[in-house]
Design a protein that fits this description.
With 358 residues, this protein is α+β, with helices and mostly antiparallel strands. It is 26% helix and 30% strand. The longest helix has 15 residues, at 330-344. It binds 2-OXO-4-methylpentanoic acid (COI). This is Branched-chain-amino-acid aminotransferase.
């Protein structure tokens, strides 16, 4: 494959405008000037890697992504360090997960080096877009979708891979504070053999109605259960969940194929082990959560994900019943600070998780 071609934006955003946007980045509303693109065809494989101006994608109305949802995506963040470099966090894990999702959705695999290069090339041209406030970063969104114009149901023979970038602050908006979570009793997120452990748009589309119910009940996220197994907890609409006990344990649902293997999830598990906590990845029922909070054995609960970082869970709303927790507990706070410290270069990167992009 040839090297990435750089096609300059004809009228890039001025430094003043970028500075204005970075004052309050929000989440997912502003996009940098460029996008990285690689095309794929069954006959030719991956070709024509380029960085071009961010803008609308020309797409045939019969493109199979629009009809059958053959699509996958990733999320990772870029941080500016005091040495002037722009770093990202465990991108090899995202590359591996992208390929796992690609396999499940019958999309082509993308070589890890090409994935890393697409991030490096994009960040190199848009590096002035990285915000530096507490908990802020440049959110990178690689995605792959079926572009072939064909209405038969089979894997597409033409595919596009792209990366867009968006300056990001707190996913839930404003200052970090504990969130309220709605238990979805009407809808499940995934079932054995389904696509629950693939990062594909359909999983998120299916979470929107329950998420709407959550919002109508004053909650910011929805918690999905496994109705087949005693209402064991699974994951939130777009993040994994952890419970902290008063005897030094950290509990999280085990990976059974119905849960997304979060990069933040596995990093939290490692950091918790490093600080001497016992990590239990296993089935956790809603009854156990409820009883633990009532008896005081579960002292903290938090959500985690690339976008959410680590966000304390304040209340769990199950119909008329509210299971309260402690707000931002000590363990939640300590792991959040350590993780953000590693990501932003103020805490030693002892697991070699950082990768310099630019
Ligand atoms: C992420 O955390 O990066 C995700 O992809 C979740 C999404 C809900 C923003």
């Amino acid at each position: 494959m040839t090297a990435f071609q750089y096609i300059q934006h004809p009228s890039p955003t001025s430094e003043d405008q970028i500075a204005q946007i970075l004052k309050d980045p929000g989440f997912g509303t502003n996009f940098t000037d460029h996008t990285a693109v690689i095309d794929w065809t069954l006959d030719g494989g991956w070709a024509n890697p380029r960085v071009e101006a961010y803008g609308p994608i020309p797409l045939d109305p019969a493109a199979s992504v629009l009809h059958y949802g053959q699509e996958i995506f990733e999320g990772l963040k870029a941080y500016k360090h005091s040495d002037g470099g722009i770093y990202t966090f465990r991108p090899q894990a995202n590359a591996a997960r992208l390929n796992k999702s690609a396999h499940r959705m019958a999309l082509p695999a993308l070589d890890e080096n090409l994935f890393l290069e697409s991030l490096e090339q994009l960040v190199a041209v848009d590096k002035s877009w990285v915000p530096t406030g507490e908990g802020e970063a440049l959110y990178l969104r690689p995605f792959m979708f079926a572009t072939e114009a064909f209405l038969g149901v089979r894997p597409a023979q033409e595919v596009s891979y792209r990366v867009i970038a968006s300056p990001a602050g707190n996913y839930f908006g404003g200052e970090l504070k504990p969130v309220r979570i709605w238990v979805s009793r009407d809808y499940a997120r995934a079932a054995p053999g389904g696509t629950g452990d693939a990062k594909t748009g359909g999983n998120y589309a299916a979470s929107l109605l329950p998420q709407q119910q959550a919002a109508e009940n004053g909650c910011q996220q929805v918690l999905f259960l496994d109705p087949l197994h005693d209402n064991a907890i699974e994951e939130l609409g777009g993040m994994n969940v952890f419970l902290v006990t008063n005897d030094g344990r950290l509990l999280t649902p085990e990976l059974t194929g119905t849960i997304l293997e979060g990069v933040t999830r596995s990093s939290v598990i490692q950091l918790a082990k490093d600080r001497g906590l016992t990590v239990e990845e296993r089935r956790i029922t809603l009854d156990e959560w409820d009883a633990g909070v009532t008896e005081g054995t579960i002292t903290e609960v938090f959500a985690c994900g690339t976008a959410a970082v680590i966000t304390p869970i304040g209340e769990l709303v199950d119909g008329d019943k509210v299971i309260a927790s402690t707000g931002t507990g000590e363990v939640t706070q300590a792991i959040r600070e350590e993780l953000l410290g590693i990501q932003t270069g103020t805490v030693e990167d002892r697991h070699n998780w950082l990768h310099r992009l630019a």
